[in-house]
Amino acid sequence: MMTPMLITALALALLAGPLGCFVVWRRMAYFGDGLAHSALLGVAVGLVAGMSSHISMIFVAIVFASLLLWLRAQRLLATDTLLGILAHAALSLGVIAMALLGFEDAELHDYLLGSLDKVTADSLIYVVLGCGLALGLLIRLWPGLLLMTSSEELAHAEGVPIRVYEFLLMLMLGIVVAAAIQIVGILLITSLLIIPASTARLIARTPESMAIGGSLVAALCMLGGLPFASALDVPLGPAIVTLTVALFLIVVSARLAAERLKLIS
Fold first, then answer.
1. pLDDT, tens digit, for every residue of 234-259?
2. What domains can you pick out in the chain, each with its CATH number?
């Protein structure tokens, strides 16, 4: 029987695979961390405004991305410096807001590292709908995003609206953050994007096969992480990430062994 927990994990894995490819290709890991840090502030905004935390997290993610793009256009500071300022400011404000709202340390711990209890039937609709819309948008933009990733000059010459595509890519990352906070938590969301995609990159021959492979790796590790976390009574997020790292190391070892055999032969 498919529980809300399993459906949430599979929906997130389908989106994390292809989206993680662009995080790896475009070196957006630091941006992913910054966006994840803003999620706690999004939760607090949702509680104050009386709206769904998923919607409020996406709203805060849009504000975060828009502010970053605007500050970057001013050319006052380097992008990584701006990300560091915005990310830590958002996380600090989020922790303070949650404390003022009366949240206990245990509840903050669940948001930071993920919790089995956070995945409910009520949240399932938002997660599946958000991931489905983001995946559909990603498939629609796939050719332009690939062209933009390989050469922004060529993409501009082909009529790809680069700034619009960048913003939409950030928006999709915001949707992943809103969905993944229940599974892996705020602190480990970026690893769910980077590690499965990096694992698939070691064996993939085309961008499309890397995207599919990333989804399969993410799904396998999340499905394995659920019973792993429950059996050992450990936080769900670290359990899933531990499995992804283990699988990554296995693939790296196999790749290195295969290359040594080729040299010997």
1. 877 888 889 999 999 999 999 999 88
2. 4-264 (1.10.3470.10)
